[in-house]
TrEMBL record:
This is Gfo/Idh/MocA family protein. It comes from Nonomuraea guangzhouensis. PANTHER family: OXIDOREDUCTASES, TRANS-1,2-DIHYDROBENZENE-1,2-DIOL DEHYDROGENASE. Residues 21-138 form the Gfo/Idh/MocA-like oxidoreductase N-terminal domain. Pfam families: GFO_IDH_MocA (PF01408), GFO_IDH_MocA_C3 (PF22725).
Length: 344
């Protein structure tokens, strides 16, 4: 039996007691621009500094987003006395070095997904943060979106029964430019790290770490994974089937199928979206959930920023809904899949 109605989301609403932190951005590229807009429009956080390898680029970004301090290096930004938290928006290959620099300067850090290129690097970051007593969080924005809080409540309440399968895909048609960071091995390119990390984290949230990882797919001429399907086995026989690709845009939906009910998350499942809860047969009524907050697209990046501030205010050193242990485990799954694809 489905519930009569869906639970309300627990929102990371700005102005609900979280500190108004002073943020500095390293890597003023594409996602940093979206983050800056979301932060300014939809949070009580303050964007005060930006650094780039080029002062001109940092200055242009600062002018566009009304940022006070313009800095010419990561080191200057992380050591700036008016920065409380560093948002790392560089390519993944630089996440470890920038993250460690921020931790060494005693700053909290929000690091774009994937947190690092390998699980060993992620472990290094997690250990450094725990030793320093600062908060490190992967910018896995899906975890902080309204729909995710409702889905977690449905899972915790056992509404789905015994979850048997997670199916999710994330394919984008990225121009096959060998200079693009996604095609360059030394920049941590490849579909799995950049896009596949979303399906893998969905599987991890629902079913935990896999007991086995099987990857089938192909590589680009530049030596990164171009497309793959991962089959993950889990305890009690549940399976995750997860597709990612740099070559073709897919529906980007997520399905969580249980013995009593199924959640079908509309594409793009990892962004602010809607979902349907259906019963176990064709004839049951369905329940539809839509995001009531009005925040669409990359405005949804604001939820993770307010969440981080709330966690800092609570004295936490990791996210309670995406722990460092789980973050490392997700990259470890990707490590195994990438090794299989490279060797096949
Ligand atoms: N949450 C999301 O939805 C989302 C979406 C897209 C991307 N991302 C993630 O965000 C990160 C950046 O992606 P993007 O698409 O924004 O890339 P991008 O547009 O290429 O921007 C990255 C910026 O990092 C700086 N940078 C480049 N190489 C660097 C290096 N080796 N060391 C230090 N800084 C370097 C560059 O700025 P300067 O040259 O000025 O220093 C560049 O503008 C990636 O980890 C990606 O996976 C997340």
């Amino acid at each position: 039996m489905l519930p009569s109605h869906l639970p309300d989301p627990d929102l990371y609403l700005p102005g609900s007691g979280e500190p108004s932190l002073r943020w500095g951005i390293v890597g003023p590229g594409w996602i940093a621009g979206e983050f800056a807009k979301a932060l300014r429009a939809h949070t009580a956080q303050r964007l005060v500094a930006v650094s780039s390898r080029s002062v001109e680029r940092a200055q242009a970004f600062a002018t566009e987003h009304g940022i006070e301090y313009v800095l010419g290096s990561t080191e200057q930004l992380v050591r700036h006395p008016e920065v409380d938290v560093v948002y790392v928006a560089t390519p993944q290959s630089a996440h470890l070095a920038v993250g460690l620099a921020a931790i060494a300067a005693g700053k909290h850090v929000l690091i774009e997904k994937p947190i690092t290129v390998t699980a060993a690097e992620a472990r290094t970051l997690a250990e450094a943060a725990q030793t320093a007593g600062v908060l490190v969080m992967e910018a896995m924005w899906s975890r902080y979106l309204p729909q995710t809080s409702v889905i977690r409540k449905l899972l915790a309440d056992g509404v789905l029964g015994n979850v048997r399968a997670v199916l999710a895909d994330h394919g984008q048609a990225i121009t096959a430019d060998p200079q693009h960071r996604l095609y360059r091995p030394e920049q941590g390119g490849g579909a799995l790290l950049d896009l596949g990390v979303y399906p893998v984290q969905l599987s991890s949230m629902v079913l935990g770490a896999p007991t086995r990882v099987v990857a089938v797919g192909g590589m680009t001429d530049t030596g990164v994974d171009a497309y793959s399907t991962l089959v993950l086995t889990h305890e009690r026989g549940a399976l995750s089937t997860l597709y990612s690709s740099l070559q073709a845009r897919t529906a980007m939906t997520g399905v969580i199928a249980g013995t009593e009910a199924t959640i079908s998350i509309d594409g793009a499942f990892y962004t602010p979206t809607s979902f349907t809860l259906s019963g176990a047969d064709h004839f049951s009524p369905t329940l539809r959930w839509s995001d009531p907050t009005g925040l669409r697209g990359f405005a949804g990046l604001s939820w993770e920023a307010t969440a981080l501030a709330r966690f800092v205010g609570e004295g936490r050193t990791e996210s309670p809904v995406h722990t460092l242990e789980e973050t490392v485990s997700i990259i470890a799954t990707i490590d195994q899949a990438r090794a299989q694809l490279a060797g096949s």
